[in-house]
Amino acid sequence: MTATLDRPVDEDELQAQFDATIAAEHRIEPRDWMPEGYRKTLIRQIAQHAHSEIIGMQPEGDWLLAAPSLRRKAILLAKVQDEAGHGMYLYSAAETLGADRADLTDKLIEGKQKYSSIFNYRTLSYADVGVIGWFVDGAAICNQVPLCRSSYGPYARAMIRICKEESFHQRQGYELLMTMMRGTPEQREMVQDAVDRWWWPSLMMFGPPDDDSPNSAQSMAWGIKRHSNDELRQRYVDMSVPQAEVLGVTLPDPDLSYDPETGHYRFGQIDWDEFKRVVGGDGPANKERIARRRAARDDNAWVTEAAMAYAAKHAARTEAA
Ligand code: BYC
Q: Does ligand 1 have an atom closer than 6 angstroms to the CB of 48?
């Protein structure tokens, strides 16, 4: 779909080719013409996704030095490192759209770009590490498996690898909780307490309800998103209820009930005011999450500068040779 230069570029023709590619369920690649809105939407979503992975290292990272055994520490360390890797794939995907990685980080720190609301809650006990794996990575899988079919090639391909790793993350969380549930009454209480605190924020991860989601319709028409926020949230609830039963915990929703007519679980009202507050910067840990990201950028700037200076020197030498 690359424009040829031997005749004037006809915007309508390019748009028609783009539309045909989307309609045929083929992929848009970085070299292809794309409408500015499509590019901007992808940069917005991919940057927010990358920021979520990077900020998402913090709540679990807080437990690295306090993991209860060497085995748990090794698992947690591997998971947190995976999240750094996911952030890097995603920033690379955003770069294929013309975004600049350092600029995206600056926008995150200045509050001009978002990251997932879930990472503004604190991890108060080790059970939270397990519940993040089960709930948060479970929600991530539910949301991201359809993104493997996203219309933008680099994003879809990054998602395939990321989803494989998310699957390990979800399982390690569930296995940790299973182990704790076989332990002492205090350990079982810790798990239930973590479930009570993380369930509702996990449902908020899927975004606002469909009738209050300004980006969904266009993103679905472009094949960036494949399902609406509410569809994925419902899928997630249906998946989580039997898992909670096997684990032996109660999900903190008195309205949760199976509806035999639809084959889905009905659930209670989500506190959308809380969601708006947290996304707007007033969650339990927003300020410290950004302060830590800012410190990491500033304290480590010398590493980037040294790497850039070395690369420039190396390029100059290669050119001279
Ligand atoms: N938190 O029109 P809507 C992980 C924003 S990390 C904050 O529905 P859209 C992990 C939304 O951006 C996985 N903001 O938007 C890492 C929009 O804002 P603007 C993170 C939210 O884009 C470490 C506005 O609200 N996953 O798994 O069509 C450890 C209106 O929303 C949230 C992704 O990023 C939220 N929860 O749909 C463990 C998945 N929800 O920019 C695990 C990729 C919405 O218009 N992203 N907003 O002002 C997506 O699938 C979509 O972007 C969303 C939102 C479903 C999240």
A: yes
> What would the pLDDT profile of 149-167 be if each residue is shown by its tens digit?
999 999 999 999 999 999 9
Q: What residue owns the CA closest to ligand 1's atom 29? A: 56
- 46 CA distance to ligand 1 centroid (A)? 9
- Give the tokens for residue 130: 């397990």
Q: Quickly list DSSP for 122-176.
A: ---SHHHHHHIIIIIIHHHHHHHTGGGG-SBHHHHHHHHHHHHHHHHHHHHHHHH
CA–CA separation, 77 and 169 (whole Å): 11
Closest CA to 268 of 258, 255, 257, 259: 255
- Per-residue pLDDT band for 5 (boundaries 50, 70, 90) equals low
The model carries a pTM of 0.95
Distance between terminal CA atoms of the chain? 39
CA-nearest of 8, 6, 31, 7 to 18 is: 31
Closest atom of ligand 1 relative to the 48 alpha carbon: 34
Nearest-angstrom CA–CA distance, 54 and 292: 11
Q: Which of 42, 46, 116, 271 to mutate to test the pocket of ligand 1 (most atoms within 8 A of CB)?
A: 116
Residue 260 has, within 13 A of its CA and on its CB side, a CA count of 0
Q: What 3 state SS string does 176-231 have?
A: HHHHHHCCCHHHHHHHHHHHHHHHHHHHHCCCCCHHHCCCHHHHHHCCCCCCCHHH
42, 147 Cβ separation under 8 angstroms: no
Q: Could you tell me the pLDDT band of residue 9, with boundaries at 50, 70 and 90?
A: confident
Alpha-carbon distance values, 37 to 34, 114, 220, 222, 265 (Å): 8, 18, 13, 10, 36
- Give residue 276 CA to ligand 1 midpoint distance, Å: 12
Using the atom order of ligand 1, give the atom closest to the CA of residue 57: 23
